[in-house]
TrEMBL record:
Transmembrane annotation, as ranges: 369-389, 409-433, 445-467
Keyword Membrane recorded: yes
UniProt cross-references to InterPro entries, sorted A to Z: AmpC-like, Beta-lactam-related, Beta-lactam/transpept-like
Pfam families listed in its UniProt record: Beta-lactamase
Keyword terms, alphabetized: Membrane, Signal, Transmembrane, Transmembrane helix
Signal peptide feature range: 1-25
Organism: Saccharopolyspora antimicrobica
Key word Signal present: yes
Domain Beta-lactamase-related: 35-350
Protein name: CubicO group peptidase (Beta-lactamase class C family)
Listed SUPFAM superfamilies: beta-lactamase/transpeptidase-like
Amino acid sequence: MWTLGVPAKTRRVIFRTLVAALALAAPLPPAPADIDATVQEYLRSTGLPGAAVTVTRGTEVLHAAGYGRTPDGEPITERTPMAVASVSKSFTALAVLQLAESGRLELDGPVRAHLPEFRLADPRADRITVRQLLDQTSGLSDSTVHPFTRPQPGSLAEAVASMRSATLVAEPGERWEYHNPNYQVAARLVEVVSGLPFDDYLQRHVFGPLGMADSRAIDTADELPPSARGHLLVLGGAIAVPEPPAFGGGSGGVLSTAHDMAAWLTAQNNPGRTPIASAAAITEAHTPSPASGSYALGWSVGTTDSGERMVSHSGDLFTSTAYQALLPDSGYGIAVMTNTGLAHGDATALADELIALMTGQPAQPPNSALPVIDAVLLGLAIGAALLAARGAVRARRWAASRTGRISTVLRLLPLLVPAVLCASINQIVGALYRGRDVALIQVPYLYPTFTVLLVTAALGGVVVLIARLTGLARAVST
């Protein structure tokens, strides 16, 4: 017998002891009220205007709610569609894995075998595999395919066609480099192999089976609905602004809700018990290759501050951010969508606080220095404007005191420095972002008050230059 002759009373004592030990080993999940309080305090302390938050554990949804308001003043609920930005890559990767599982494409076969329209100027591109698109080791780079400074495509087919003059910066499979067009090619691959537009494919094979009724995929920033648009924060206050023009089909175009992301996280954290993919496919999506380092197929692999294994991906637009994380050992899933942009990183910061709550770690306080920095930069901009006005008023006196031509030219040239910086600031910012492609229109979204200072200095320098040249011309004519 399984009891081995142990009396019933003793068995009950042993059972209760085991239950108590398991309870100590696996702490109870935080109460919804604790999650709610954490989110509310974050919004209060940072000025974040709106967020959608989901926390799951195993197959249970612990919390799914919206907070604050959209840019047009509507309350955010658990059913409000918001942009998930580059979190979209995990959806694209899953779509590709589904097609691979069904035998319709080969993950380690060349992309061109299934997508003949994928032609680059570099012959090495013929060897790029489907997997290398997904783990970002294709050899494509922002330095050769410019995601933001190229003319923006209107469809996935146009996005792939626009790459025909591109070259590679490395052999396929040699090194990892984050590059949005990798996933635009992957999404186009899904369209061609399945015969369905990308959004239709996701509706039929991902969103529909999971009950994600309010989720969909778009291609361009101008397709964002009002609820999915966002803000800049200046001096701690939220300013509603449109997302700058950009193409994000396959790489950043999914819209979802707190309610729907709960279903997505549950599916990812319960491989083998989901209608969208096998356990092997989910595991493969979460497993990096040696060449890709910590980047898997639309997911990054790392650890929490407590040392627990974590599978995650962030998403950044210029007016909104998103973050998703899975803690496979404890079964938690967290998704956060916020309507402030890349410059503030609110989705990741809020998710970090929630992960700390799940794992019993102290949370890091939000960055409170940004309003102070804004105030300093705006103060400098006012100072630059006043100095420019003073220089323009005194230009005639300055011109009258000039005698040498060379020294006069040398004194005038520094006035052009801010204008030169202003015209090339996107290239400087791109270098700071490790070679990423940055369009000039995107810089004010990243650094709004610094941009005000730089533009003020540039205009002021030009005004003083014109005033001084006018003064010199008058001095010569008299």
